[in-house]
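Exercise 7 asks you to align residues with tokens for two separate proteins.
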Amino acid sequence: MEREQLVRAIFDEAWNREHYDSVAAALARFRFHIGGRTVDMGLSDLRGIVAGWHEGFPDLAFETHTVVFSGDDVAVRATLRGTNTGTWRGSPPTGRAIEVAHAFFFHFAGDLISDVWELLDQGELQRQVDR
């Protein structure tokens, strides 16, 4: 699978549908960077994170707007949307809709994703859930 197809499948298949077959090999082990933290992850970790988001936001969907390549790097501009109708991060549902802009940067080592950086406004996300 080409890198653009793979990155799009991470959002369209893994995040939106919780189907991992097409991305499993590329996400076997990677470093996830967010908020100044770096965490070593694998596919099972990603599955757990995605499942938690879908528990809190059953209609969760990422829309990818832009995918740009440069050598071994891929940048993505996306919007996350969903409605908090389930328990999320230990809190009861608020029934509120969210729409949060994201930027992701993927670094490839051959056919594998070695690093993922996620940028989003965490405060805005929480504000939308809590308002």
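Second protein for Exercise 7:
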Amino acid sequence: MCGIVGVVSNAPVNQLLYDALLLLQHRGQDAAGIVTLLDRKFFMHKAKGMVRDVFRTRNMRALPGDVGLGQVRYPTAGNAYSEEEAQPFYVNAPFGIVLVHNGNLTNAHALRAELFSTDHRHTNTESDSEVLLNVLAHEIERATRGGMLTSDALFAAVHSVHRRVRGSYAVVALISGHGLLAFRDPYGIRPLSMGRGGDGTVMVASESVALEGSGYTFERNIAPGEAVFVDLQGQVHAQQCADAPTLNPCIFEFVYLARPDSVLDGISVYQARLNLGETLAKRVVSTVPPSAIDVIIPIPESSRPSATQLAHLLGVPYREGFVKNRYVGRTFIMPGQGVRKKSVRQKLNVIGSEFKGRNVLLVDDSIVRGTTSREIVQMARDAGARKVYLASAAPPVRFPNVYGIDMPTKDELVAHDRSIEEIRELIGCDALIYQDVEGMKRAIMKAAPASPRVPLDGFDASCFDGVYVTGDIDLEAILRMSGNRPRIEEDEEDSSRLALPNHSE
């Protein structure tokens, strides 16, 4: 999961791209990059770190041009430590192309071999995004056959990309001297939206919040399988390029990943999370009577809408019992010291008066490894809670995710091959209540518009139900992709959003 943005404007875009990436920072904190285009020349700066740390005044001055793109990176494959794998990626032929990608290719291994043996193209990193760029470049070269680049040729190239590539991908690419190309995989697993500025300029971005926060008006979502080409004059050309597209967005976007003020494929993320709290209330009542709960406390941050709705429906007071420290720095390893893992207690602090002597229902958006939940439950007990109940707005996470979330292998998932009672014992709470899969789907579907531009066919909920919508995932594929999960250096802090402690917006 990453955040991507692209702009075709009639004024310098470096500050605009920087601001948009700040609005997408929650989608990746590992690395950031921006490319701008001026007189057919690309100007690029990318590095590991948060947006505010990667770009200084000198870097911004070195990014001239009225067209550009950017990405915040969350590594799901390859080497998380390698600065070379920060995006954007660049190839010089044909025309000169730079690309940013959100998602994960499930057949990257086969494509890499195919690129070398058949297409005679070289990739220099372990990143599947570089594979995707080279497949796109090869197909554009085939479609143009040495001639002029037209929108029809681009759409033919994207059609061929869809036929070769498997997995999830939302893509923004710049083609030197021509314009911006954006497209989305035929299942629409990862989000991509488009908007316009008051002067008619065009922006595409992972989430609507990046458009609206940058002063652009949201226009529409790019449909699954669709390609949009924006030429340098700002003219928009669009075409469906997939043979049989269906809309099956990743349900984890609504549960956890996206900002609550975003609207994805017509669904308000905030409303979806309110609905999850509503359906969760029925599950809680069947396990713990509301009279046995003194207070409902969210585990910051993504669970707040679900927790507020749950408290409202149960008639139980809602309280903030945890304060999040947003400024916890990295751990420095000095000579003679061992590796010190950061505790949840360094990142969350309790407000003791909300726990002391009370029966507390903690609400989280999801439970992945369970280690964080166990420590938070213990923090509540240490603060004096009599009973600690835990409710998850999402069902048990029982399967790995292969579409762009660094979900652990199944053996690391606390719910894999365990009953709810066994999970409860491991976490140490007095009662554990999960959302059910169908209830989750109904709750989020309920937030969909009545007459959408593109009908919602369903969701990719594979980490909950084990059903992979692309139809090409088996045990062998999962094992191979697990082996290519990002490597974190021993002294590096894990910067993924699924790392401790929890979810910041």
